[in-house]
Write a structure and sequence with these properties.
Elements: E1 2-6, E2 9-11, E3 17-19, E4 24-26, E5 32-34, H1 36-51, E6 56-62, H2 68-76, E7 81-85, H3 95-109, E8 114-118, H4 129-137, E9 141-151, E10 154-161, E11 164-171, E12 174-178, H5 190-196, E13 203-204, H6 206-209, H7 247-260
Parallel strand pairs: 1-6, 1-8, 6-7, 7-13, 8-12, 9-12
Antiparallel strand pairs: 2-5, 3-4, 9-10, 10-11
């Protein structure tokens, strides 16, 4: 079985800054890491590999040359290989242009049974790329998978959404996106980290994927999404009130507050 895991290198969202004029994240303002949900996707693939020696896991990413480090980390965590889609013409892509490019990369890989992606990325939070890729590849997809029950000729898994749990099934090849509840990603050993440093990461440019791409529909040129304005809310602090003398008044005020926030509703 061939599994492709989609990996994205994202900025540290605790430290990153925003370019309000251009309406984009200033990716140079903070360090980078693998998108946390993609680590869950990778772990799901590695757990399937642990159960079956015939499983081959390929980590696929689109990004700048620096994203090679994310793919080497994926290999350290258990992936068999990593492939980077990198070209200046891919830059500035929205979810649609990104999906087109990743789908082209998957077509160039050729043989796959299951594609696994995180449910969303912390720098975008759209949850669109996985399903868009599935539609472009004309394969079935299941989003928000929290548990994998079976992977064989079919995929069966649990989905938690809208306060309910659903058991869903699809034919393979197919694509799933996973939630953080599906597993706890393992940490790579020091030995695996050292080994992954020597891994060769193929870099596929626009020229490599030209057979599957239209140059007018990729990167910022092919992105219909336009950010008009970015607003970063001010950090809020917890508000409090201290009553020292009139306890009865304190109780009355607290009851009114609880009514206002509907804590006392049955």
């Amino acid at each position: 079985m061939n599994i492709i895991v989609l990996i994205k290198q994202v900025p540290d969202m605790e430290k990153v800054k925003f370019d309000r004029e251009k309406g984009v994240i200033d990716r140079k303002s903070a360090g980078t890491e693998i998108n946390p949900f993609d680590l869950n996707a990778l772990e799901a693939a590695i757990q399937l590999k642990d159960k079956d020696d015939n499983v081959h896991v390929t980590a696929l990413s689109m990004g700048p040359p620096s994203a090679e480090s994310a793919l080497k980390e994926a290999i350290a965590r258990g992936a068999d290989e990593g492939i980077l889609l990198s070209d200046r013409t891919f830059g500035g892509a929205d979810t649609w242009a990104t999906s087109l490019t990743l789908a082209a990369g998957i077509k160039n890989i050729g043989i796959y049974d299951l594609i696994i992606a995180g449910m969303q990325t912390v720098d975008g939070d759209t949850g669109q790329v996985g399903p868009e890729i599935a539609e472009l590849l004309d394969i079935p997809h299941i989003s928000y998978v929290s548990e994998i029950e079976e992977v064989g000729s079919k995929f069966r898994g649990k989905v938690d959404i809208w306060d309910g749990t659903y058991l869903k099934e699809m034919e393979l090849p197919g694509l799933i996106t996973v939630t953080k509840d599906i597993n706890d990603p393992r940490l790579p050993s020091f030995k695996d980290k050292m080994k992954s440093r020597k891994a060769e990461i193929p870099v596929w440019s626009y020229e490599t994927l030209e057979e599957y791409l239209n140059g007018e529909k990729i990167g910022i040129k092919g992105s219909p999404t336009v950010v008009k304005k970015i607003e970063v809310p001010k950090a809020t602090t917890r508000k409090g009130k201290l009553w020292r003398e009139n306890i009865d008044q304190a109780v009355d005020e607290m009851i009114e507050i609880f009514k206002e926030i509907k804590v006392l509703e049955g």
